[in-house]
Amino acid sequence: MQGLIFDIKEFSTNDGDGVRTTVFFKGCPLRCIWCHNPEGLSPNPELYERTEGCLDCGLCRAPCAHEECRTFGRCLHVCPKNLVRPVGRYYDVDTLAARLLRQKSFFDSMGGGITLSGGEPLLQADFCEALLTRLSGQLHLAIETCGYAAHEDFVRVVSRCDLVMMDLKLMDPNTHRTYTGVGNEQILANAKWLKTSGIPHLFRTPLIPDITDTEENLRAIANFVGTDRIELLPYNTLAAAKYAAVHRTFTDRIDPEHAHPIDLSFFQNAVLRK
Amino acid sequence: MKEPLKQLYNYYIIDRTHRSLRFACNIDFSAEFSAQKLSPEERMCRRFERVTALEIPRILPEEKIVLTRSVSNVGDIFTKEEWDEIRAAHYIHESGYVSNLSPDYEGMIRDGFEARYEDATPYQRRMMDAITNLCDRYSAEAKNMGREDIVRVFDRIPRKGATNFREALQFFRVLHFSLWLEGDYHNTVGRFDQYIYPYYKKDRDAGVYTKEEAFDLLCDFFLSFNKDSDMYFGQQQGDNGQSMVLGGIDENGNDCYNELSELCLKASGELCLIDPKINLRVNKNTPLEIFEEGSRLTKLGLGFPQYSNDDVVIPGLEKMGYSHADAANYVVAACWEFIIPGVGDDIANVGALNLPLMVDRAIRSHAAASSDFDAFFETVKSEIVSECDRIAEKIHDVWFVPSPFMDLLRKDRKYRNFGVHGCGVSSASDALAAVKKYVFDEKTLTVDHLIESMDKNFKNDPALLHQLRYETPKMGCEGGELAAEMSVKLLGAFSDALKGRTNCLGGIWRAGTGTAMFYLWHAAELGATADGRLKGEPLGTNFSPVLFAKTEGPVTVIDHFSAADMERTLNGGPLTLEFASGIFKEDDSIRKLAMLIKYFIERRGHQLQLNAVNPEKMKDAQKDPDRYRQLVVRIWGWSAYFVELDKPFQDHVIARQEYTL
User: How far is A166 from chain B (nearest CA, A)?
Assistant: First the structure.
């Protein structure tokens, strides 16, 4: 069994307790219009091609004999600036676990641990479960998830985590469908289960101007989470260029000027991130 | 910043009014001294007397610690012809004037000039008289202004030893001022929080100052390092060696970090000036809070504190022959070389070894004939030995311009060791990893083809360039353990090559990991290298990944750069990690950075420098991305390598940095 990973980042300081290494799983069932990780959307390896600094030397377009280059129609092993790269690499559980355990001594003495993120890790639930089982008891394990997964998959994966960070984006099912491509029924069902599961967890809401940051939506979220901890994450407008690198179009329908002032008083246990 | 300090800050730092009041000294000392055939000592003494006499006391109403240079230029004591003669007969280090020492401020501040008079040379007496006279004129000026507080300080010092905190600070200023005026440079500050602490504590215990009042006085004092610093000699503005060392353990292993250490860190943060440059001595038991205090300073983007690890440095110095008590009292020279205050007479930066060049020579001379990698590495070793021979042979008959005043602040000359920088450790280690992997283990690359490709700057084989540059194990990068292993061998070979040698002053040779400006100079001596570095590209600064490496992150970088036994290559030279200042936006980032530093110390790394990078640097990075591969920026909940971001991202981050700073 293999997992498709698009990045591993050390010293992540906003993905759970302590200093963490974040593993980004490739592939996501949602299509949030504000997504800032477009290279995590497709569940397949793809070409990540930057243009900034390109010498137009044409080397990457010349035919090559590498097996792995064939699907891309470009040579991945020749760019003098390293601008043409595959994004998405398959790991087996042992290799990835070994990579993460290498820094066990760091996590042991400093706190922190591993965070599974994405994309959406639950799209690769079997691999997640196997990886978490392998690392269980050795590292502090956290997951960042949108919660859109079959209930059985959600339960078997998050039950193996020490911390679950789950998104709550929009409470209205129709609006949720409009902006993320899917309804929120499954997500809310999983969230309800999580609330009573006894597993340490927190919720997160990205503050997308005029979409998620409306008073109506935030009040509904506040109602839902009750006394559970929730983090509100401000919107950032930087996604467009990354979209081009993975040959996607950024349909920017978000106007940062329309950001609503955030009223934390709706919430019982909320933090507004910077 | 409070009002009296703000006034001083505006005057000295913003408006720099004092600079416009300086006047030139038009005396042609060298011509005059040469015509009179004066001895070097007489020249140094006479110039000091003459310039000191020209100095005009100026005191600002808000100022407590006084003495500001008013003479803008001081000519050399030798003519060009005399220098040619001297250089023909001697090895002259840099400018020839004494530098990079840590003077014994402690003893002089305690004793005062009068106690030293009897044992002093006539030159030293004249110099002490000259500076005492200037202090008297300051005192008279203070009296005119009704500043009895200043008058009282000069009633005591420098004739007699200091009895309180204020006198001790003013005495330091007098001594530091005198050393620069004498012509010595890179005059370091040493363990300021140790030798000043008794005066501080006495006044605090007696209730003379609240902690806050003591802090205000300390800020006034810290400003004094920045009054004349534009006149201090260096490679670049700011390269002036005013390094202050805080914390650390004593010879019995007791932690010496005290309330004054804490105030020094805070004063540096309050003023946000590049001087004094703060160094923190730490060890595996140092509490996280101290690393947090340091990280708050790092956040400001000044590039310090720099951390030195007592757990490695003290035993390392002892192994080189320093006594335990002296080793425990170590400080850093102008940059990072470990030296001993008051008794050290080391030339810590006498030469530099171009490590990538050693690997390159070995590839060209012997790789094809080597049966396996171990045999090949033997030739790398002998190249290093030959180069160390050449460095050592060049340095004989060392001569320094006499420095009578500095000699007053030397208790002894116990250590006369020479330090050699090891430049390009990562580039050389990565090249060795490539050779081992492709030439010897996998046998997919022939030595001839590698040499031809390096000679052609890889124009003949872009795929090889890509492979060596981006797909081969590198220190700090994924799979870089092989390169880290090579660094262990390489640094071991460097250390062994200098071991057992005696220098021309009877001391030993010390191998280090610093580069100074050699990361540019040595790069110019190289063509393209086997790590995929192109001709003309600079090497990494000090002990850090190559500039085009896409590192796994700071934890892996620390792991790889603490692989070697740093006690063996202990001349100094820090691992340098750069963070964009935006990374500090999160509330708990200070604590997390502190943990990272603590991890480095626990891993027995020897020295660490962290930079919070500013927008100017990012603009440079846009123009020259390959030089800034390690630059990490925080976008919001995620971090990225700055140069990997497309331009709109970069522009945005720059704009945001400017906004938040």
Answer: 15
> Within a domain: residue B274?
no
Contact A244 B646 (CB under 8 A): yes
pLDDT at B637: 30
What is the structure's pLDDT at B641? 65
The verdict on B484 and B627 lying in the same domain is: no
Instruction: Give the 3-state secondary structure of A130-174.
Output: HHHHHHCCCCEEEEEECCCCCHHHHHHHHCCCCEEEEECCCCCHH
Q: Is residue B166 part of a domain?
A: yes
What the block records as the tokens of A61 is 């377009």
User: Do B226 and B275 form a contact (C-beta atoms < 8 A)?
Assistant: yes
Same domain as B638, residue B550: no
Residue A115 has φ and ψ, to the nearest 5°, of -125, 125
Q: Give the residue from B130, B163, B186 where a domain finishes.
A: B186
Q: How many Cβ pairs within 8 Å bridge chains A and B?
A: 108
Residue showing tokens 């094809």: B368
The shortest CB-CB distance from A13 to any of B465, B589, B648 is to B589
Asked which of B186, B218, B244 is the last residue of a domain, the reply is B186
- The more confident residue out of A142 and B231 is A142
Query: CB atoms < 10 A from the CB of A267, how many?
Result: 23
DSSP B17-75: HHHHT-B-----HHHHHHHTT--HHHHHHHHHHHHHHH------TT-SS-----B----
- pLDDT at residue B660, as a whole number: 29
Structural domain including B59 reads: 1-87+104-186
pLDDT of residue B639: 38
For B238-260, what is the mean pLDDT?
94
Residue B55 near residue B71, CB atoms below 8 Å: yes
How remote is the C-alpha of B183 from its chain's centroid? 19
Question: CA-CA distance, B14 to A212, in Å (whole number)?
Answer: 47
The predicted model gives A59-86 an average pLDDT of: 93
On whether both B548 and B619 belong to a single domain, the answer is no
Token reading at A216: 């109506």
pLDDT in the model for residue B632? 62
Q: Which residue of B has its CA nearest to A19?
A: B592
Question: Do B421 and B536 belong to one domain?
Answer: yes
Q: Which of A14, A19, A241 lies closest to B596 in CB terms?
A: A19
For residue B375, what are its two tokens?
């045999």
Q: What is the pTM of this model?
A: 0.91
**Is the same domain home to B555 and B656?**
no
pLDDT digits (tens, 9 = 90+) for B304-358: 899 999 999 999 999 999 999 999 999 999 889 999 999 999 999 999 999 999 9
Give chain B positions within 8 Å (CB) of A103: 555-556, 559
Does residue B21 sit in the same domain as residue B124? yes
Residue A15 with chain B: CB contacts under 8 Å: 637
Q: Is the pLDDT of residue B635 over 50?
A: no
Half-sphere exposure of B347 (CA within 13 A, CB side): 25
The upper half-sphere exposure of residue A12, i.e. CA atoms within 13 Å in the direction of its Cβ, equals 24
How far apart, in Å, are the Cα atoms of B221 and each of B270, B275, B369?
13, 11, 63
Structural tokens at position B395: 């340095």
SS3 state at B567: helix
For residue B441, CA distances in Å to A84, B436, B485 come to: 28, 6, 15
Instruction: Note whether B354 and B522 are within 8 A (CB).
Output: yes
B216-227 pLDDT, tens per residue? 999 999 999 999
Q: Is residue B384 part of a domain?
A: yes
Same domain, B428 and B518: yes
Residue whose entry in the numeric block shows the structure tokens 């997992």 = A3
Do residue B639 and residue B548 come from a single domain?
Answer: no
**Which amino acid does the sequence have at B379?**
T
DSSP A219-241: HHHHHHHTTS-EEEEE-----HH
Average pLDDT value over all residues in chain B: 92
Q: Which of B158, B316, B305 is nearest to B246 (CA)?
A: B305
For residue B473, report the phi and psi dihedrals to the nearest 5 degrees: -50, 130
Q: Domain A2-45+89-272 is of which CATH architecture? A: Alpha-Beta Barrel (3.20)
